[in-house]
Design a protein that fits this description.
about 15% strand, Rossmann fold, Arc Repressor Mutant, subunit A, five-stranded parallel sheet, alpha/beta
C-alpha cells in the first residue's frame, strides 16, 4: 500500500507516518508539505499511489484547491481530506467535491487505519458527527441535480446499471476494466446517498 501524506506540520506528519508504519508495516508513505510539492511529485507517483491523505490548510493554499485539481486530472485516485477543523459545512464540501473521506486530525490511529481500509475497499469514510448532515443533504437534493453532478462516463455507467448489466458486462460495453467500473459505481452510489446497486435502482429514474 502506497500513501501520499500531504501536511505542512513536520511533527504531525512524522508522528502519523511512524504510527501508520507501526500498525501496518507494509505501508509505503511518500510525503509532501505544500500544494507545490504535490504538483511536482504527483505525475511520477500517480501509478503507484493507493491513496492521498490531504491536509486542508497548507502554506500555499487550501487542500480543497488541490482536491479539485486531482479529481479532474486523476479521477480514479482515492483522496481523503485531513483537517484540524471539524465543521459540518467543510466536511460536506469536501465530500461533495469528490473526497472519499474526511478524517479529523483528532482521529485515533486505529480508527484512521479503519478509515483507510474502508476507502481502499471502495467505501467512503464519514465521521459520525457528519453522518446525519450528509444524509439530510442528499434527501433535500432533487434527483435531477444528483444526476447532473455525475461525469459523462458516470452517466453512461448509471444508464447501464439501470439496464441490469453486471460490472463485467458494463466494462465490455464501455471498453474499461472491471475496477474502473467499480470506481465509477462507487462514485455514483456516493453521489446518490446509497451504498448498493439495489438501493440505487430503487430510486426514481432520472
Amino acid at each position: 500500500m502506497h500513501i501520499l501524506l500531504v501536511d505542512d506540520h513536520d511533527l504531525f506528519r512524522r508522528g502519523l507516518v511512524s504510527a501508520l508504519q507501526e500498525l501496518c508495516p507494509k505501508i509505503s508513505i511518500s510525503e509532501a508539505d505544500s500544494l507545490a510539492s504535490v504538483r511536482s511529485q504527483i505525475a511520477s507517483l500517480e501509478h503507484s499511489l493507493d491513496l492521498v491523505l490531504l491536509d486542508y490548510e497548507l502554506p500555499d493554499g487550501h487542500g480543497t484547491t488541490l482536491l479539485k485539481e486531482l479529481r479532474q486530472s486523476y479521477p480514479l485516485l482515492p483522496i481523503a481530506m485531513l483537517s484540524a477543523h471539524e465543521h459540518h459545512e467543510l466536511m460536506r464540501q469536501t465530500i461533495d467535491m469528490g473526497a472519499l473521506g474526511f478524517i479529523p486530525k483528532s482521529t485515533s490511529t486505529p480508527i484512521l487505519i479503519v478509515a483507510i481500509q474502508l476507502i481502499l475497499s471502495g467505501g467512503t469514510y464519514i465521521p459520525p458527527s457528519l453522518t446525519s448532515c450528509i444524509q439530510q443533504s442528499t434527501i433535500n437534493t432533487p434527483p435531477a441535480t444528483l444526476y447532473n453532478q455525475l461525469t459523462p462516463r458516470q452517466k453512461e455507467v448509471l444508464h447501464l446499471l439501470r439496464k441490469g448489466l453486471s460490472n463485467k458486462e458494463i466494462g465490455r460495453s464501455l471498453d474499461i476494466t472491471d475496477a474502473t467500473v467499480k470506481a465509477h459505481a462507487t462514485a455514483i452510489f456516493k453521489s446518490h446517498g446509497v451504498n448498493s446497486r439495489s438501493k440505487l435502482l430503487a430510486m426514481k429514474d432520472h
